[in-house]
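[Meeting: bench + compute handoff]

Bench side (C.D.) handed over the final construct sequence. Compute side (W.E.) agreed to return the predicted structure before the next meeting so the bench team could plan truncations. Sequence as handed over:
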Amino acid sequence: MKRFIILLVGAMAVMTSLQAQPPERTANQDKYYVRRATHFDDLPVHRNDIIMLGNSLTDGAEWNELFNNPHVKNRGIIGDIVQGLYERMEPILQGQPRKIFILSGVNDVSHGVDGDSIGRAMEKLIVLIKERSPRTKIYLQSMLPFNTDVQMWKLLKDREQVVIDGNRAMEEVCKRQGVTWINLYPLFVDKNGKLRADLTNDGLHLLGPGYLIWRDAVIKYVNSGTPPKHHRHHIHKKYRRQHRR
């Protein structure tokens, strides 16, 4: 029954969020969401894991390869909204992961949600994580810009300011909740306030070079608190010398 409820809520979330996707892909995206969510239900999360949580932008990367770290795990699903993240947190929080990196909100923007509402939804998600997994470090990443000149996303037309407002609201959430804010937006925006055309082929999702920019912006947060391998080896050697005495 618990699994059914999670799937039902996830399906309801994606049916709403898919309005931001091209109409001909709606049915496939719905099926993909359920496949992805049920797959994540069955994949374990451990205490040393680093979770990349979000929508299609997160879904689109091979994060463990980008960071050369098997503990970095992808929990992004195409079309997800902030409430969708909230509804599917249970399998993640059971594992008490070391870190969670969140990026979401653009699908909410496409549904007419304003920036303040996105901030409130994100704060609700952050409070849940803090309550259920207090040791987990939370990193909230800004929404990226989009570019309707590259491809027209009808429900995003003239909504650029909502992304800016939502990012401002989420930054305030980070201050209130004491979590780390990572502002990716300036790295991806052009002089006209749109996603750089050289980093996308559809005005919303990233090409490979865009993911490298994202990686380089967050790698210090991913690696923080992890002893370098040579240091761990040195400790082991010192222990062995002491043990021989």
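W.E. noted at the follow-up: The longest strand covers residues 50-54. C.D. will use this when planning the next construct.
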